[in-house]
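Example (one chain per record):
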Amino acid sequence: MMYQRAKERLDSLSGLPACNADKNLHTELESKGISRRDFMKWAGAMTAALSLPASFVPLTARAAEVANRLPVIWLHMAECTGCSESLLRTEDPTIDSILFDIINLEYHETIMAASGHQAEQNLENAIKKHKGNYILMVEGGIPKGGSEYFLTIGAHGRTGAQECRDAAAGAAAIFSIGTCSSYGGVQAAAPNPTNAHPLDSIISKPVIKVPGCPPSEKNIVGNVLYFALFGKLPPTDAFGRPTWAYQHRIHDLCERRGHFDAGEFVQSFGDEGAKNGYCLYKVGCKGPYTFNNCSKLRFNSHTSWPIGAGHGCIGCSEPNFWDTMSPFERPLGNTPFHTAFGGYGADKTADTVGTVILAATAVGIAAHAVVSATQKAK
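Predicted structure:
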């Protein structure tokens, strides 16, 4: 049933006019040295990332091929443009970035030639032309209330909040791209002088949050593919993040997890433990508290990520991480932090976790030996 609905959805999209019709996805891929085989491997990886069965691989590939039928409007609020840069400024173009090059990107201030009145006219025209059918992506925190005018945009002097409200009214799907748009980001950190807020507190429509500073390109493109496949927003966790990308903690899938379980920790940057790749929890890693798929997708053409490079996770995909996770080189155990465990979190066992696990293993082995001896005696 789910497969058939997705197939019918893609058939419907295929009948819509294509943007960049002169560009063929596979021709563009081949010009960058990416073969059809590589493309299908990518489709398989994206299908798995979206938690879909292997039978959906051909549909995921087709969704990428018809993605240029989905108009996208991308707005910039109070931010550094790092989320756009992570997707567009790749050293070796990936399938994700190439896909975004040929997608129907109706408005994106970073890459468009127009400015001033012409740019604003382009935005207004896109909203009217594709009303009810476009995907809205917003990057950056947004001043709200009495300080809304702190973010004033364009030739007509509209506030960022008003621009978001106008664009959201006709959107078929809305995504907050990056932690700033998802939770306010550094703009909303104490004392939050501009009264910056996340997108979902500015508008009244459902918003899918894609946090990270920045989020990986696959977490951005994956949501476009999901909407192309099913015509609806993906399931989310309690903080509005798509579960297909944010269902696991960094700690659960970390390459250094074995060292944590063995009680082997870096005590200070540059020590022998750091050279041996030990767990970074004691030098501030927030992996046990952070939900994301960085360890699987990685950055820099999928070659590395912060923990792999030797620095702990700073929790950038969590709400208010600038206030709750800092100082970034100090564990939360050394920071006043109330938890359900009487003020103790994962740090409670950091010094003894290896001993506890080994002791439990020993008890288990002993118990197994006793049961085996009893069964043999019987």
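Caption: The chain is about 40% helix and 10% strand.
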